[in-house]
From TrEMBL:
Location of the region described as Disordered in the Swiss-Prot/TrEMBL record: 1-21, 230-265
Natural source organism: Marinobacter aromaticivorans
Protein name, UniProt field: DUF1631 domain-containing protein
Top-level taxon of the source organism: Bacteria
Biased composition (Basic and acidic residues): 232-252
Length: 734
């Protein structure tokens, strides 16, 4: 799938929010929040798609199955519009922030009373109850960050005050923006509730990181920098602080990263994973080592210094080709344990990691396990990224905001490398490709130059993005030419098929004179072909068809006076149109006068004769072969099986990448460049913008059913990895 989370909607929401100047301090928050919500919303829609597909597969009747498939199709078709509407509305909140209600605890559990719901329909009531529950839960869970933001936004915006506070990021505003956006979807209440449930799960439940980032930006701008909240929700983010107090000392590296991010709450993703891992240890009965008198806890700079002694790669040290061989598998836990075993302690105690650092190492290890199993990542790039396990571990130990900040330099670089290499196949010529050479060079530089300064990743990412911009300009031009060429070719092909069908249908009805038959098939068909291609501008197609019909009608003998009068009126204009058209296509230029004279003779004879124009013999109607009928009956179940895959094909959008597998076992990746509706044609191109294959919608569905077509996920690479890790941990601790 799309995915549009990065560029063009920012322009749109700036335009949408231009009605009122946005305070300077808020502009950065707006862009970060809209981009972050866009990414979260994509995850919600993907989950809705999976839920509906599963419900359709488990449906108890064909009607129920069709209902889910239709809902899936409706959502896929209008998904981009809903996302854009939601993001534009949220952006508008920052330009004209609505007043926000109180967040006191006594209002969090307040339910709608009977009077307010008396005139609400059952479906609307269900939806309103779901929304109320969603908003209530969010206000309770994020009470601290919301109070801080409300105070700071009210300070920034003119006209806001303690009595009339504003907060563009209040849950009720975001939820109302989403419900407004999904009004365009023609789906029933059950599917609408599924949408709301996944919005709650993927967007609202993950607001914490965006709220904390917004608070951090305002604190940096000097907006009420000393405001702290110590309520119940403030305790939800204090796990790492309790860990430091239990050790009796503070990890300098972690506290520095926390200060940079505006507090440990900004690492909400890691905190969530840390809690899941802690629950997993508790379920397994693993005791805490933190208070063991025979163990000395190692963390902070001491751990970072120990990791600094780890070699990045023996291949990098020897100048070896990093792309050779299989993806590199490293047991990071074992590597760190070996380093600890070699560490000397003056007090004779056994060195051990802090649980929070151990969880960081486990998380990096799980991330790279996902990377090595991720089919969406192209094999050559997968090999290269696998070499970065130890550098990324060093980055994470120093700054765990890697997991929570989508703008973290190392995270951005990994996402860029994976996104740029999605079109790679094993059969590609790596040695001759500039893109692969660039990715290889970036990995080589990280392995040889990274000394703990994360700025290296930022520098490399800027260089890579600049390189990609140049490469994309070239491939975009080629792809545009390919797309235009294919559209022209397919339109010409369709035009020729239509012309042949129209003329053959009319000529087959009667035994026309040989000269007329020759003019229509070899001359006028070319006139009709050009008329079809120009019809968008000049509307000549129907006129060219009418000439054929008028010519055949005039060749009929007519006895009635009215018809003969009409014949006299039609023939001069008909001959004039025929001559002009044939001259335009240079039909038999040397003998055109003779041809037209012969045609006049045929028309005159038809006017004088009293016999009817002879009707051509119709071919006998053949009865359907019993074997053929049986084959058609056997195809019906197959068509039903393909129906589900047709819905998935309808969800493919321009720019999405897929992989085709051939019968001989070979495979290649390509991108959907154009969907030519009038010809039911999907055109795919390679990374260079050159056409590689074209298929109809039905052919693609059959390819998918046979397992020869795979849709590649194109969301942010690290985000997908984190989602997979969190999902795996939740299933294990459930």
């Amino acid at each position: 799938m799309n995915k549009q989370s990065g560029i063009h909607y920012l322009r749109e929401h700036r335009e949408a929010g231009s009605s009122k100047p946005v305070p300077v301090e808020v502009t950065r928050i707006r862009d970060t929040v809209v981009a972050g919500l866009g990414d979260l919303l994509q995850g919600a829609f993907d989950a809705v798609d999976d839920s509906l597909f599963e419900l359709a597969n488990n449906a108890r009747s064909n009607n129920e199955q069709n209902r889910y498939f239709e809902a899936m199709r409706e959502i896929r078709i209008k998904r981009k519009g809903v996302e854009r509407h939601f993001q534009n509305t949220v952006a508008q909140f920052f330009a004209n922030p609505p007043h926000t209600g109180p967040i006191q605890e006594d209002t969090l559990g307040r339910q709608a009373n009977a009077d307010s719901l008396a005139l609400v329909g059952d479906d609307d009531l269900e939806e309103q109850v779901a929304l109320n529950a969603m908003v209530t839960k969010a206000k309770a869970h994020f009470q601290g960050p919301l109070l801080q933001l409300q105070a700071r936004f009210s300070k920034v915006y003119d006209g806001a005050s303690d009595d009339a506070p504003v907060n563009p990021m209040a849950p009720e505003h975001l939820c109302s923006a989403f419900t407004e956006a999904i009004q365009a979807l023609e789906i029933q209440i059950r599917e609408r509730l599924i949408l709301l449930k996944q919005f709650d799960r993927y967007v609202v439940s993950n607001l914490g990181m965006l709220l904390d980032e917004a608070n951090r930006i305002l604190v940096q701008a000097g907006v009420i920098p000393n405001f702290r909240y110590h309520g119940k929700t403030g305790e939800q983010h204090s796990a790492s602080e309790r860990q430091r107090s239990a050790d009796g000392r503070e990890d300098p590296a972690v506290s520095e990263g926390a200060r940079q991010d505006g507090g440990t709450a900004s690492n909400a993703v890691f905190e969530q994973i840390h809690q899941l891992l802690a629950r997993q240890r508790a379920n397994a009965g693993i005791p805490s080592r933190q208070h063991d008198p025979n163990i000395r806890i190692i963390g902070g700079h001491e751990l970072a210094n120990l990791l600094a002694s780890l070699p990045f790669s023996t291949q990098a040290a020897s100048g070896h080709n990093l792309s050779e061989g299989e993806p590199l598998t490293i047991d990071l836990r074992e590597v760190v344990q070996q380093i600890l075993a070699q560490a000397h302690t003056s007090d004779g105690k056994k060195p051990a990691l802090k649980e929070i650092d151990e969880d960081l190492i486990n998380l990096v290890s799980m991330l790279f396990e996902f990377i090595l199993d991720d089919y969406n990542l192209s094999a050559p790039v997968q090999v290269l990224i696998s070499r970065l396990q130890i550098p990324i571990l060093k980055v994470v130990i120093k700054d765990k905001s890697f997991f929570s900040k989508t703008t973290h330099p190392a995270r951005k670089l990994l996402n860029s490398l994976a996104r740029a290499g999605i079109g790679w196949s094993n059969s590609d010529e790596k040695a001759r490709d500039k893109l692969y050479e660039k990715i290889h060079g970036i990995v080589q530089r990280i392995l040889s130059e990274f000394d703990g300064d994360i700025a290296l990743f930022e520098t490399l990412n800027e260089e890579f993005e600049e390189f990609l911009a140049k490469e994309n300009r070239k491939s975009s031009l080629v792809e545009q030419r390919t797309r235009e060429s294919e559209r022209g070719r397919i339109k010409s092909q369709k035009a020729q098929e239509l012309v042949d069908r129209v003329i053959k249908e009319r000529v087959a009805r009667y035994r026309l004179p040989e000269s007329v038959h020759n003019i229509l098939l070899n001359g006028w068909s070319r006139v009709m072909f050009l008329a079809y291609l120009r019809d968008d501008v000049e509307h000549r197609w129907q006129e060219s068809v009418k000439v054929v019909d008028d010519l055949i009608w005039c060749l009929h003998p007519h006895q009635e006076d009215a018809e003969r009068d009409q014949w006299v009126r039609v023939v001069p204009g008909l001959l004039k149109s025929l001559r002009a058209g044939l001259e335009e296509v240079s039909y038999n230029a040397s003998k055109l006068d003779e041809t037209m004279s012969q045609l006049k003779h045929e028309l005159t004879d038809a006017f004088r004769t009293t016999s009817s124009l002879e009707i051509a013999e119709q071919p006998p109607v053949q009865e359907e072969d019993p074997d053929e009928a049986r084959n058609k009956a056997q195809l019906q179940p197959e068509d039903a099986a393909v129906a589900g895959f047709m819905v998935q094909i309808d969800g493919i959008e321009i720019g999405n990448w897929v992989e085709f597998r051939l019968v001989n076992g070979a495979s290649f990746r390509c991108k959907l460049s154009a969907i030519i509706e009038e010809a039911d044609c999907f055109v795919f191109v390679n990374r260079m913008g050159l056409k590689v294959i074209e298929k109809t919608r039905l052919e693609l569905a059959h390819e998918m059913r046979r397992g020869r077509l795979t849709l590649l996920e194109q969301g942010a690479f690290i985000d997908r990895a984190l989602d997979a890790v969190v999902g795996s941990l939740r299933s294990k601790t459930a």
